[in-house]
Amino acid sequence: MKIRSKILAHENSIIKIEIGDNYYSKNQLTAESINIKNSDSEIIKSSHLITQGMVILDTQMYFSTPQTIVFEIDEETVVMNFICCNNVEAHIDQLESEKYSKENTHNIFYTTNYKATFKIPAFEQINYLSIILSKDFYYQIINEDWELHEKFSKNILLKKSSYLTSKYLPFTPAIQWVIHEIKNCNRNGALKKMYIETKVKELLVHQLEAIINLPVQKDQIDEDDYNKLQQAKLILDEDYVHAPTLAELSRLISLNEFKLKKGFKACFGTTVKSYIIKLRMEHAKELFKSKASTVSEVAYKCGYKDVSHFSAAFKNFYGFSPQKFKINWDYINFWITGLLLLS
User: Fold this and answer.
1) pTM above threshold 0.85
2) Where are the domains of the chain?
């Protein structure tokens, strides 16, 4: 399997990896990294974990001018894809994809010969994690249990490129946490290989669960109730900081609480309470971009009167405390913007 990535404006490849397709339990896991900084115009940082049949790419990029990147894989592959950025325009041969990337979304796709062109906007922090598996490696992970995803498996057997699901889905807290564990693994040697392979399998389980538990479609709910549920979601979207109680929301949309609870879960795949927490946690993440924001201030701005309640909710959602998250964000922000100021 050959993996290549190149910026069209550059002569040399950014990523150039060649591995065997077959999985062997005793194959070693190697790590490599790429760090490119050209004056103040671009930063490229990519960490790779490589073994026979599997490559994990953790890539961050920043450009001061728009760039076009070509990415190619020359063999049959299954790719677990995790997008952590917005506004990247993608054109993928053999696959019908969403035109622009959406932050914190994931999907799985199979392709016989992957070739994609990505248009990267200027001044956008680009971050993605891709786990590229040979077909043989993927067989080992799922134990050839094709019933897990019957339609997708049929496409693989027919060598027909396809996505596991038609749209990229939002990260779940479980997916976010396993990604964090993979990126921050500090083990070495055989233990690291064992740990990473276990985490890849765990991540696949969470992806399959997210797809298996997709919410029902509009036509399975009464149209009038569906419109009211959409109204409820809009109310929460517009003011999740001072979100109404379930009873208040029920009155606002003229739908009884039972139908509201059941219908909201069916339409949007989550409870009203969980959806409010999700919106608040995403807002908290944005607020932590400011180095001046304290945990108490962020808690208040997200609708929490008690900092301990906010901290517990945050840790449950992201997997670590807001203070640790704030420290980690400061480091990421320093790397993205601070390096531009350093020579």
Assistant:
1) no
2) 2-171, 218-336
